[in-house]
TrEMBL record:
This is Transcriptional regulator MntR. Keywords: Activator, Cytoplasm, DNA-binding, Manganese, Repressor, Transcription, Transcription regulation. Belongs to the DtxR/MntR family. It comes from Allorhodopirellula heiligendammensis. SUPFAM superfamilies: Iron-dependent repressor protein, dimerization domain, Winged helix' DNA-binding domain.
Length: 140
């Protein structure tokens, strides 16, 4: 039984914020060794209250661990999600570049597409990046 597309889109949106946050936390940790709420406020251009509420949800969901006035740490599950999100992002961005999309546009577009691309479509993108276009592919 397949899920209606609007239901899948709703599910995608529900995980989008978590994926964006764990990816940003991982990036901050990779860059400077720690991630603090202020880093996320700056990155997402949102209020401290928004970051604090989101971090509370991520902690409840087992993706991050933090204590008051301490850096934000990813749990093992949070690290796995960050890696998966980064990989999906890079595949989509690379695929868009292969299509001839500019670096800047591919970077912007991949931010949204990465959250909504199905496993089947992502696998097809990976195949094309690895093996090139199939023989029967029509170019426009």
């Amino acid at each position: 039984m397949s899920i209606p597309s609007h239901h899948r889109t709703r599910l995608d949106h529900a995980s989008e914020v978590a994926e964006d946050y764990v990816e940003a936390i991982a990036d901050a940790i990779d860059r400077s060794g720690v991630c603090r709420a202020v880093d996320l406020v700056s990155h997402f251009e949102v209020t401290h209250a928004t970051v604090n509420n989101t971090i509370s949800r991520l902690q409840r969901d087992g993706l991050v661990h933090t204590e008051p006035y301490q850096p934000i740490q990813l749990t093992a599950a949070g690290r796995r999600l960050a890696v998966k999100s980064r990989q999906r992002h890079e595949i989509v961005k690379s695929f868009l570049r292969k299509l001839g999309v500019s670096e800047q546009t591919a970077a912007i577009d991949s931010e949204g597409i990465e959250h909504h691309v199905s496993k089947q479509t992502l696998a097809a993108m990976k195949r094309i990046l690895k093996n090139g276009w199939p023989e029967n592919h029509e170019n426009g």
